[in-house]
Structure formats: C-alpha cells, structure tokens
C-alpha cells in the first residue's frame, strides 16, 4: 500500500509547483503543461499527447514510475486500458464525479493515509480544461491465490452510541479474527453504512478503516440523502466520503464488481434495479475479464425473486462466466439463494445485518446473531464460507428450541405453534446442501427437515415484540432456515449435528429457553 511514497512525492511536487510558479514567465508553453489540472503529484514525466476530443488523461505507474499496461480506468461511464507507456485518456461523461482504476490482481490495494479504506479513485472537477490524474501502484511480492473476504452487512448506525457498539462489537470481533489469519483479507461493506445520518459517514469511514484489512464500500438505501416528494434522494454525501458507486477490482483469480442497485423515486419510495447505463458500464468492464475467473458481484438489495426491468440483460451480460456469486445485505436476515440461469447455478448470499435488529438486541429478526460472512477463496473457487457471529465462536451455527415453547414479556407471547415433541433448529447459514441430523445418546434418530411453514422465529419475536414492544411491521422478519423433527422421547439427551456443503460439522445440544442471548453478550 503506497502511503509514505505518496507523501514524499507530494512534498516533491509542492517544491516543483513553487518552482514553476517562480519561473513561469521565462518558461515556454512546451516545457510544462500550462492549462492542465494535475490532481495527483508527479515527478518529471513525459507529456502525454492528448487527443483534442479527450479531457481526462494520466499515467498508471508503479513505485519506480515504470508504466503498468492494461489497467482498466473509468469514470463510471467510459472505460479504457492503459497502453505500454502506462497512459490512458478519454472524454469524461458530464455525469462523472470520479476517475478510477480497477486494481489489478498482482498489485496491492491502495488505501488512504489515515484509514484502511480502499483508495482507487480521484475526484473530477467541472473544468472544461483537460485534467490529468495519475495513479501509483505497488507490486505484490507474490500473487494472492488464496485469501479471505469479509462481507459486512448493514451497520446502519443512527447515533454515536450505535457507532460505539459497531466499533466495540463488530470491528473488535473482526480484528480478533484478522489476528488469527495467515492469509490476506479484504472487506466489502454491503451498504446501509448509516441510518439516514450522513453526518456519520466520515466517522464510519474511520471505524471501518480501523482494521488490518482494506475495505471496499457499497451504497445502501439508508446511505442516500436529500430528495423531496418530487425529487429522488441522491448519493452525493456518500460519494464524498466513500467514492464511486459502481466499480471493480481484482484479487488473485477473482474479479469483484460493486454496484448501486437502489433506485429512489422520491425522498421515501425506492425499489431495486440497475439502469442501462450501469449495465453498459458492467458489460464493458467484464469485456476485459477472462471468463474463467470467479466473478463476485456485490450490491445492497437482494435480486432473488425480483422482476426489475433490466434483470434479463444483467444475466445475459454475465452468462459466459461459469462461477458466479452475488453478495447482498438489506434484509436483516440471513439467506442463501440459488439462481438457476443459463444452465448454471449462481449463489446469492443475503447477509444478516451486523446491527441485527437495528442495535436493539444482539440478533437479527430471524434469530441470526449479529455478524458477518467469511469467504475463503482458493484460485477460482470459494472453498469454504461461513457466518461469523459477533463475539461468539464461529462454530456457533444453530440454536435449538422446543415447538411448544413460549417466548415474550408484558407486550406479548410468541410460540412456534408445534408440540412438546417437536424439536426446532434455527440453522442460519443453511442452504439445500446442508444435512441436519438428530442424535439421542449418540444414536441417530433421523434427519431434520426444512419447514417452510415456519417462516418467523418465535424466539426473536418474543424479545423484539414481546419484551421491547418494537413495531411488528419492521421486526417480524422472514425466517428461511427453521428445521423440525418429531422426537419420541424428548426427555432423553439430544444432539443436533449440522453438516455444511463443505463437510464442516457444527453441533448443538443446548435447548434455548431463555432470551438472555438476545439481550446481551
């Protein structure tokens, strides 16, 4: 990560700039670029022959100022690649706010000086004068074939107290996990960094960037601001803190894409979707990517079971990739959904929120603990993924209840509506490949069955509605991972064994009857 080098180069540039000011009267126009806005410090570099129609240009160079060829540079609308001299140029869109590059897989992710937030962009100005933007990258010593990705859904902080909880619970947990890892780790925030509080953007940028992993950021619906009954919300405040909304980067044999899929109609009403302009950009971006790469596309709102206007075009653009995963947040519940499109399976990972039920407890509305997703990348495949519950062991992957148990308080009591012989397992990161078995005295009784008729978690409702008296419309969350089994002798010692798609085994023999876990750690 180039931080110190930038500082040194900045000082050199300041000295150079002062020298140019002092001697400008005696300089010929050919000796330096008179009417060009240079927003990134440079040493003496050859002047780029900019075509008359272009107004954004620059170099992409390594630490030794050697050119890097083939780097994709964009303004969010146009995309070009650097030539053998490390040069790029194009005419910017009048809608563009940034110029940025797609970090190559064999170079480090640049981060800001004071935070470990990915810094791959520079702001454009509104000048009609051509502007030069140079980028400097540092070569990796070894290519990263193996690394981890942490997917962080919905911090959604609304005040300083919630920032403190995110910092002391989520971020502290991430730091502890990073300390154990021998592999590189990258973070992707999946949107709703704040809860309609743009004044907290920079604070959250500092908190998100306080770990040892570089973090990329997605925009969510609560990150958009302004608007009126006749004017949609906008992303200007978010962009001022976090940069472009649609971008890509490369790590190892993986191409990552981050997209904004929140479409506001006015200041309150929104839906999910991608504009044709966005998909034009995506199509161009993917044209530079080998189709044997693993493709991971992140956005805020899940697209499963949706019918937005450009849906078919999105899937058509990515149809040549054989290994695709989608990352989303937004729902405040956990779900693994499998799209079957164009003869392939695309996994959409809908991540529970780090804030859970809006920081009112330690759980999401579906009973999933506050937490984040962890993905182990090996080459072009994800060899393992799991949900890491905040401040709890990663082996904690399921919770057990009896079907007739009552949960609640003075504002109401909730139950699963089953019998005293019905064993219920909430297996929050399950997908169709998981196997959930029941054992009694170490003898297998049978397999638990995903019960689609159970679509809310009575334990979570008991706390959020029955104890806290929260709004039922917001806190009655869909639950898609409740398994049931009828036990003939419920008084015996029972154990549930859940085996994930990778053969990892998680066990639970504690039947949860108390709400204490939801109340606090």
Automatic annotation (TrEMBL):
Domain Calcineurin-like phosphoesterase N-terminal: 63-135
Domain Calcineurin-like phosphoesterase C-terminal: 348-506
Domain of life assignment: Bacteria
Domain Calcineurin-like phosphoesterase, chain residue ranges per copy: 149-333
Pfam families recorded: Metallophos, MetallophosC, MetallophosN
Molecular-function annotations in GO: hydrolase activity
The protein's name: Calcineurin-like phosphoesterase domain-containing protein
UniProt source species: Sphingobacterium paucimobilis HER1398
Species classification: Bacteria, Pseudomonadati, Bacteroidota, Sphingobacteriia, Sphingobacteriales
